[in-house]
Write a structure and sequence with these properties.
Structural class: alpha+beta
CATH architecture: Alpha-Beta Barrel
Distance between the termini: 16 Å
Radius of gyration: 15 Å
Strand content: 35-45%
CATH class: Alpha Beta
Number of helices: 3
Largest sheet: 8 strands, antiparallel
CATH superfamily: Regulatory factor, effector binding domain
Strand order of the largest sheet: 1-6-8-7-3-4-2-5
Shape: globular
Helix content: 10-25%
Oligomer: single chain
CATH topology: Multidrug-efflux Transporter 1 Regulator Bmrr, Chain A
Number of domains: 1
Mean pLDDT: 92
Length: 151
């Protein structure tokens, strides 16, 4: 597990509120389906690159409480964003980086279970997953998970 400080980034995408975290897997699956059904990649102009981010934010407490999940792209600046997309500005933060390896989504779910049961001093501000070129094969994907921690 690596410790890093990430500079501020801007993400735009679609969101859902996870009111009952025990149902998060089903809601996340539905959000991913919406992402592809609505062809979100074609709606986002000014993308930094083709990496997809899943951001967890607006926490009402710890991971057992409601939070918002957003799937989208990093953009260079806020401009000409479609009204139906959410824009998130993630401030500079300290993170612990975990890596999930293997079949999607199982490997990511397993990594999150390890994170939830760890003794990390999480800040519960903005956490995110990065789906870059290493995640193209869902049978053998590599996904980095950035967990915001107290300094």
């Amino acid at each position: 597990m690596e410790s890093v400080v990430e500079n501020s980034i801007i993400i735009t995408g679609i969101s859902t509120r996870i009111e009952h975290p025990t149902h998060a897997s089903k809601q996340m699956e539905e959000l991913w389906q919406q992402f592809w059904k609505e062809n979100l990649p074609s709606k986002v102009t000014g993308r930094f690159n083709n990496t997809i981010y899943t951001v967890y934010h607006e926490y009402a407490g710890d991971y057992t409480k409601p939070y918002t999940a957003t799937i989208g792209y990093r953009i260079n600046k806020i401009q000409d964003i479609s009204n139906d997309l959410k824009v998130i500005v993630i401030p500079q933060q300290h993170y612990k980086v975990f890596t999930a390896n293997g079949h999607l989504p199982g490997s990511v779910v397993a990594a999150w279970k390890n994170i939830w049961h760890s003794n990390l001093q999480r800040s519960y501000k903005f956490d995110f997953e990065i789906y870059d070129e290493r995640a193209q094969n869902p049978q053998d994907a590599i996904v980095d998970i950035y967990i915001a921690v107290s300094e």
